[in-house]
Amino acid sequence: MVISQGKLMNIISKTNKNNRQRSRKLLTLTGITALVLTGGLAIQSANAQWYQWSRLTGIVYTQSNIPTPNANSILGFRRDALGMLTPLSTPFFPTGGAGFPNASIVGRGPFFITAFASDQEVIVNPEKTRLFAVNSGSNTIAVFDIHQDGSLSPVEGSPFPSGGVQPVSLGLAGDILTVVNQNLLPQIPSQEASDSLPNYTTFRVTPKGRLIPIPNSTASVPRGSLPTQALISPNKRLLFGMDGGTGLLRSYQILPNGRLQQSPSSPQQLPPAAFPPNPIGLTLGLQVHPRRPILYVGFTLSNQLGVYSYEPDGDLHLLRTVPNSGRAICWLVTNRAGTRLYTTNPGDNSVTVYDIGRDPSTPVEIQRVVLRGEMGTGTAQLALDSTESFLHVVSQPAISVANNRISVLRVNRYDGTVTEVPSSPQLIPSVNNSFPQGIVAN
C-alpha cells in the first residue's frame, strides 16, 4: 500500500474521531452510573478522579521508518487521560534520512523476523528535552530538541553519520551516545557494506545536541552477528548488547573517555536452554533491573526469560531461566520501582507481566494479555510513560503492513497488571511498505 504522508494523517484522523466517540460514550455511562448510585458525593469523587486523570496526559513518539530517501520521520501523538492518542498539530517531523522496508528483511534466510530485531530506535534524554532516532536506511542519526508542546526541531547539523552501516539502536549514558550499527540491509551499496562490520560505536553529545565521534571507540563484531540493542546500566558505566544472530551476550565498560572496553566474560554464549533443537540463533530483548545488578534476557525461540547477575566490571553470571506463556518473547521493560517487568511476544501479539518485586532474580508471570488487531508476528517495542500509568506497544503485523499500530494499555497502580484502553489500537497505515520502529512516551 503506497500513500502520501497527507493521506496517512487523514486516515489517522478518521480513526481518532471514532475513538473519541467511543471514549465519550464510556465517560457518559460512567458518569450516569455514579450519579444514580451515590448522588452528590459521587460527583465530588468523580471530579477528584477526573482531576487525577487529567494529569496523566502526555506525548508519544514513534518512527515512521519510511524507506524512501529523506522521507523518514518521527510521528508525534498526544495521549489524553483515557489513553487515546491524537496526532499533534504538526503530526510528523522529518529526520532527514531513510528507514528500511519491511519486505527487504522478512524471510531473509534464518533471520525471518529481523523486522523486529532491534530496540531503542528512538530515545529521549532523562530531562525529556532532546530526542535521538536512527535512520537505518541512510546510516545517520537524527537529533531533535523537544519543545513544551511536544513539537520537535532538528539540532544544527542533524542528521549525523552513524559510524557504520544500518544503525538500529541507541543508548545514552550522560553525554555519551552509543550507536549499534547492524549492517544487515541488502539494499546498502555492496562496497560500503563490505568495508564495514557490525559495530558498537560512541559519540560525545555537545550541549547543543551535535554528535562528535569519539576516536578509537568502535567495537566491531563479526559479520552476521545481528547486534540488536545498546542497553545502558543504571549507573551509566556499562553497556549490554546481544548478537541475535549467533546467540552471544556482550558487555562493555564505558570508560570516562567514552571508549568501550569489553568485559572479562564477554562475549558469553547463551545456555542451551535458550534454544530449541536445531537452533537458528535468534535471541532478542535485554533489560536491566533499576536497583539491583540483574540483567534480563529474552530467549525468543524457547519462550523463556533468562536472568543474569553482573559484576561492576560487567562480568555476567547466569542465575536461571523462567517460562513465558507468550510466543516468541522479544522486548522487555521494567518499572522504576523494579517490581514489574513487561515483555512483548510477537508470535501471538501479546504482552506478559512478571512480578519481580518479591525476588528480582526469580520473575513470576502474573498476566498475559492478547492485544486487539491482527494476529501473527505483531507486538514489538514497548514503553511506559513517565507516570507509569500507561504502557505503549508498537505492533507490526506480518500479514498486512497496512495495519501497523500503537496499542495503549492502562497500568493498574495496585498490582501492575494492564488493560487495553477502549480507543486502542491507533492505526499507522504503511507508506511505501514501511513499518514503525521504536517508541518513547512522556
UniProtKB/TrEMBL annotation:
A Pfam family that the UniProt record links to this protein: Lactonase
Classification via PANTHER family: 6-PHOSPHOGLUCONOLACTONASE (PTHR30344:SF1), 6-PHOSPHOGLUCONOLACTONASE-RELATED (PTHR30344)
Family: Belongs to the cycloisomerase 2 family.
Domain of life, per lineage: Bacteria
Protein's recorded name: 3-carboxymuconate cyclase
A GO molecular-function descriptor: 6-phosphogluconolactonase activity
Gene3D superfamilies: YVTN repeat-like/Quinoprotein amine dehydrogenase
